[in-house]
Write a sequence for this structure.
């Protein structure tokens, strides 16, 4: 389905409705979006293709967002990753740690508006 | 009779000295006597010889008897001469015939006529008189006149000389001697006694007094002997012994006193029983009071007298067990008093050993009061129940009045319910909100996608718009509830409010910014640190910024300024957020921090009125304050003031809570 020349974006979230919504949002905005519902899927997807931007939920069952984030950075250190979460409270510490480690480039609180996503994609992808 | 040491000592010294002195005097008297005799004899000898020489010379010159008598008369006149007598021996009697006054008078004369010198001291009228009889032998040249052979004893000269003068001189000397000797010996005696007293006897008697005082129990008595000799050493050793004894005794006394206070003031009876004889040997005041016996009566009392007959055998068995176990207790026992009444007691026993003998210490607790109390409580209960019945009917009458009051209470209760609702929201809502968040994000994003794809004229567009609105409202509710459920105690650490501003603007830029909103910053680089939780403070700032944004409907400027603010009650680091909106309505000014208060359109569904209430809670938790005001001709201004951190330790304490 993806047309040639479109920028690829990967969405990682355990809530599939979020993934689908974002994929459609980004596809409509002219990107080629894919999604994975857990950290393993994200790593696997990275092996198959190059992504100009990854949106990832911080709290996921199995491998957490930050763990996955580290793995991704191991594979490709220049990869830009936008983290988002609904669990702002629990994620506080993780966010600060992430900022300290220089890992978090952008942070979005969930639920979000499509504008926030598209503006972020425009800026970083 | 027993003499004290000093007296005995002085007596002995005096006796010894005076005995020596007596011996000396005796010796002196004796030697004076001998001396007197010696002098007397020598004097008499010389005197008799001189007389004889005179007679001899006068006879040689032809002087007859007349001449001789004259010479004798001359000699008789010499001082001290008592008697001169010529004794004729037989040759003279034969030649010249017997002369009655010149016959040998006594044994001395006769002895002298046999050729022997005779001498003797006699006493006459209190004076000594020496008697000397000198035999006269015929010399060869005398044979011309005397008819006898040379060497024959012709006769004798007997003299008596008084020793009066010598005796006077000698006795004067003796008196002198005695006078001086008595003086000197007396002085020596006094000196010896004085120094003895001073150096030995007095310290000894002080020591003795001290020893007696200590033996008598007065341990505070000190000998205080200052001498630097052995006696002084003994005294000081003695004093230091007394000192230590005193200290030990006072310590012992204290201990004893404490212990006896402990025992005697105990409200329970404490007694000591000899396990072998089964008799009581001691009791404290409470025990005596309990039993009614005096101490004298109690000591030696057999235990049969103190426990009821029916209880005795069981008690004896128990005692044996206690003696074996070393301790034990018995509840609800009875004690027989002196007046034969009995009282309920609890007994606890323990075995103690004093000087190798085993005793049982028993503690008797009088539980009659407790028993009585139980009884009293029962009676009171009954009375109370009756009273309650009476009162209930009265109360029923007052119920109507109460219902009125209840109605009045309702209003305030409403408020309480509100806060209770908040609390349960906090507890339950948090979990729920987290779970809802992800699917809600899905709904929102998919709805937005569909909205974009639909034409505004499409009949579904309005419906999708309603879905989106509902989702957006749900989102805000979830965010507020999650913030509200934030626990109050989170880690506090020293932070700069500048970093709070940086992090908030950095992390939430996508959330804050919309349309033509402009954010202007002014940071005080030297802003002092505060003790705070960054996440909470970010929440506060985010709330204020979002309020400003919403108040200006996404168009305008927001100024964020950090600075040091000095107030009467201390220094604060502050964040001020002002906007170019309409300001806060005057009538809303004192309500904006109340929960569920909002000026925003509820129908729009973006706010449920918790933001500033949450913020205020957080700031109060930081011991700070949040202030709202309107800037004349401009918008609203919110200030968040947090106390400046004075001491690094303070944060640790707060953070460690």
């Amino acid at each position: 389905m993806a047309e040639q020349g479109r920028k690829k974006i990967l969405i990682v979230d355990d809530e599939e409705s979020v993934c689908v919504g974002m994929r459609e949002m980004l596809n409509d905005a002219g990107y080629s979006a894919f999604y994975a519902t857990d950290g393993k899927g994200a790593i696997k997807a990275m092996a198959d293709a190059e992504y100009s931007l990854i949106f990832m939920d911080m709290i996921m069952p199995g491998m957490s967002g930050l763990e996955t984030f580290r793995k991704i950075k191991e594979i490709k250190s220049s990869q830009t990753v936008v983290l988002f979460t609904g669990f702002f409270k629990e994620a506080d510490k993780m966010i600060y740690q992430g900022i300290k480690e220089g890992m978090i480039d952008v942070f979005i609180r969930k639920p979000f508006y499509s504008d926030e996503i598209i503006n972020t994609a425009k800026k970083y992808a | 009779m027993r003499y004290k040491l000093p007296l005995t000592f002085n007596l002995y010294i005096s006796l010894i000295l005076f005995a020596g002195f007596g011996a000396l005097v005796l010796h002196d008297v004796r030697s004076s006597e001998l001396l007197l005799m010696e002098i007397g004899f020598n004097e008499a000898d010389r005197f008799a010889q001189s007389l004889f020489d005179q007679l001899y010379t006068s006879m040689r010159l032809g002087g007859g008897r007349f001449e001789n008598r004259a010479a004798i008369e001359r000699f008789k006149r010499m001082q001290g001469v008592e008697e001169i007598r010529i004794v004729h021996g037989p040759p003279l009697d034969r030649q010249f015939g017997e002369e009655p006054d010149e016959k040998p008078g006594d044994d001395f004369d006769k002895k002298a006529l046999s050729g022997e010198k005779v001498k003797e001291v006699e006493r006459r009228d209190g004076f000594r008189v020496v008697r000397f009889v000198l035999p006269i032998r015929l010399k060869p040249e005398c044979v011309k006149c005397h008819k006898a052979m040379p060497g024959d004893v012709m006769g004798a000269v007997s003299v008596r000389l008084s020793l009066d003068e010598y005796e006077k001189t000698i006795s004067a000397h003796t008196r002198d001697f005695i006078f001086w000797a008595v003086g000197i010996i007396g002085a020596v005696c006094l000196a010896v006694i004085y120094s003895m007293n001073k150096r030995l006897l007095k310290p000894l008697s002080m020591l003795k007094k001290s020893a007696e005082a200590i033996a008598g129990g007065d341990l505070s008595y000190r000998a205080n002997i200052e001498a630097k000799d052995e006696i002084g050493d003994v005294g000081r050793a003695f004093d230091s012994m007394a000192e230590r004894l005193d200290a030990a005794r006072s310590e012992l006394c204290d201990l004893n006193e404490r212990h006896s206070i402990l025992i005697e003031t105990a409200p329970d009876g404490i007694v000591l029983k000899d396990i072998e004889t089964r008799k009581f040997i001691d009791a404290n005041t409470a025990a005596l009071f309990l039993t009614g016996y005096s101490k004298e009566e109690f000591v030696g009392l057999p235990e049969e007298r103190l426990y009821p007959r029916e209880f005795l055998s069981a008690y004896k068995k128990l005692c044996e067990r206690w003696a074996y176990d070393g301790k034990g207790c018995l509840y609800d026992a009875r004690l027989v008093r002196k007046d034969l009444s009995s009282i309920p007691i609890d007994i606890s026993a323990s075995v103690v050993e004093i000087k190798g003998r085993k005793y049982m210490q028993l503690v008797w607790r009088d539980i009659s009061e407790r028993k009585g109390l139980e009884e009293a409580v029962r009676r009171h209960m009954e009375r109370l129940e009756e009273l309650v019945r009476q009162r209930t009917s009265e109360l029923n009458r007052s119920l109507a009045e109460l219902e009125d009051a209840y109605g009045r209470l309702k209003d305030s209760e409403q408020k309480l319910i509100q806060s209770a609702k908040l609390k349960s929201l906090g507890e339950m809502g948090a979990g729920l909100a987290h779970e809802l968040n992800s699917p809600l994000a899905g709904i929102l994003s998919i709805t937005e996608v569909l909205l974009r794809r639909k034409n505004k004229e499409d009949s579904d567009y309005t419906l999708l718009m309603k879905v989106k609105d509902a989702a957006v409202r749900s989102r805000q509710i979830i965010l507020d509830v999650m913030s509200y459920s934030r626990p109050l105690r989170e880690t506090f650490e020293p932070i700069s409010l500048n970093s709070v501003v940086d992090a908030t603007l950095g992390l939430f830029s996508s959330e804050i910014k919309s349309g033509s909103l402009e954010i202007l910053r002014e940071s005080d680089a030297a802003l002092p640190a505060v003790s705070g939780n960054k996440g909470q403070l970010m929440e506060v700032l985010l709330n204020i910024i979002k309020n400003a944004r919403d108040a200006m409907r996404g168009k305008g400027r927001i100024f964020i300024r950090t600075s040091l603010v000095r107030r009467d009650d201390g220094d604060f680091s502050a964040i001020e957020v002002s906007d170019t909106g309409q300001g806060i309505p005057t009538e809303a000014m004192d309500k904006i921090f109340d929960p569920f208060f909002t000026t925003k359109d509820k129908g729009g569904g973006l706010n449920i009125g918790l933001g500033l209430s949450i913020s205020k809670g957080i700031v109060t938790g930081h011991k700070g304050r949040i202030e709202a005001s309107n800037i004349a001709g401009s918008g609203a201004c919110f200030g968040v003031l947090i106390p400046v951190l004075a001491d690094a330790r303070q944060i640790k304490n707060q953070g460690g809570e």
